[in-house]
Amino acid sequence: MKTKNLWMGFIAVMVISFGVLLYYGREIYREAPPIPEKVVTDSGKILFTGQDIKDGQNVWQSLGGQEVGTVWGHGAYQAPDWSADWLHKEAVFILDKLSMQTDSVPFAQLSEEKQASYKVLLQKDIRKNRYDKATGVLTVSDFRAEAIASNSVFYGGLFTNDPALAGLRDAYAIPENSLKDPERVRLLNAFFFWTSWACVTERPGQEITYTNNWPAEELVANHPTGSLHLWTGFSVIILLAGIGLMVLYYARRKNEDETFPQVFPLKGEKQTPSQKATVKYFWTVSALLLVQVIMGVITAHYGVEGQAFYGIPLADWLPYSVSRTWHVQIAIFWIATSWLVTGLYYAPAISGVEPKFQRLGVNFLFLALLVIVVGSLLGQWMGVMQKLGFVHNFWFGHQGYEYVDLGRFWQLFLFVGLIIWLLLMGRAIYPALKQKSENRNLLVLFLISTIAIAAFYGAGLMWGRQTNLAIAEYWRWWVVHLWVEGFFEVFAAVVVAFLFVRLQIIKAASATTAVLFSTIVFLAGGILGTFHHLYFAGTPTAVMALGATFSALEVVPLVLMGFEAFDNLRISQGAEWIKAYKWPVYSFISVAFWNLVGAGIFGFLINPPIALYYMQGLNTTPVHGHTALFGVYGMLGIGLMLFVLRDMNKDVVWKDRWIKFAFWSINIGLAAMVLISVLPIGLAQTVASVQEGLWYARSAEFMQQPYIEIFKWLRVIGDTIFALGTVALAWFIFGLKGGWSIERKKEL
Length: 748
Prior knowledge:
By secondary structure, the protein is mainly alpha-helical.
């Protein structure tokens, strides 16, 4: 396939995909669930104002937001989905009220016929959209107002210190007196009401709710829509067709490129000052990885002992929402750092030019990294501990949005850091771009992916402190999906291709063709595949159709990752000198495996609309999250790091003992964690969600059953194996400097 045609395909995919993404982004703005100016009862009593709801969103964010429970299915897996839980409690209250008034017995004691009649009354009341766009007033029945008052008392007691709810707080890992101010409690209730109102209220002129009838709730007639079934079936057809075409492509692909030179091609190459300055980044990455694992162990343990860690009242100083925030945030920090510093290391090698003051720039960026890490983590702790007001929490504390929890100041700081990284990369690569060589096309793609990484993080700056949640979610997934899963993936593919070209294992022209083709295939599904995160986030039905279709295409290249693993295995068994790169290459093999299993199989498990309808917010999501985020991106970060460290130590032989143990422990531990604990819990929850509803699948009643508790404790096996592997990895990396990871000096 001609390179020119591939470039045309790349441009077409980018222009069309982003055009559609932005167009439906406008539709999300236009059709987002409205925030009323006032919520009033039929009798004229004002329950909440629009500002109450907005301020309540800020209270929720200050508690950790999506790091404690979920809203619209997005967030943590400890504690309920607050929107589903509120809706269920509201429905049960109204049904009992109706039953007691007419029949003088609780609803549960009525005949099926009587229950059906009361459900109809409930549904007519609760599903009807009584929001007046002209006045901005939302009217609710007096019955519903009583239910709102009842829920408000319950959640008020839960987030303060009601002794009757102490057991529930422990089950949900919510510290006593999380909120000390009664006004904040009232505002939080206003926000929870609004999120549940969007779940059950039909869009004007339609028979589906703002969240496409999610969550499943039989009492209020929230059932899967016809569109869910239709686009689920279509996504499967698209997947099968896509796999067929990719198999055809791979079958016709030639493999004459593996040349395996017998003499080490980088012999005599010297490191530049800026390259030498990057080593401290890898020490930091190793330290952050260990801290992340510790936070993960603590967070997982809160699932069985909500307020303590083996009897130690750790939640008094480190509540669940903070430990989980740090666990997720630090993962992004160390993975992104390993990828970015790989770029900084190889940029001078690409051009053969060390720009003036490049070393100073690398060192400055390192100091900025330390400030961002320490500052953002401390700010998040202060926010959750209720030490900051709404405005200060937004800027310096905890934004409450998973993966982008850090305060706006730290977001801006990081964005500026990425721009500096882009400048350092650009000035190092530019001399090579001016040369007409066979590497030029690959370098152009390298530069494009570099620009995209710096630019697309800016999507995280597109929402404000009180932006409608549906709109904030749209932009959040630009960061999480397009930035982390999209352009970082392209950047990594280019870097790995360049590494193999540099070692003269594959030809530059073939590498360019392969990377361009895979980039087109990936982005063709990946850009619009962003919408699969937004099926039930207050978006129009068209978003679900696009998300289902194109997320199926995302899976297509991942299904065939076995080919890539096989190719990398052959590379590792090539010439004698290649064996020095065994563990970096093995890491890439691991990436291919987890791409297939974690991103492909476990990703598609939850991607079809009908599957996600019942699975959103359950432990099936972290199955995909752990195997994709760590299995793919984490192992890729480790592989890139080991590749650089191998280049830094060309004249030595590594001792295999610790790195071998680390590699196998990390991969076996990750598999065990998922297969014997998280996945069984997620599947059990799915059955409960289908039979009873999301509220039950997330409830303490369900999650504290003996067999679920056993599965939670079984996670210790995988977690321990995994943690030992990360310790061994850090020990090995520090040993390259200390000497215990080096066997002897030997020229490759």
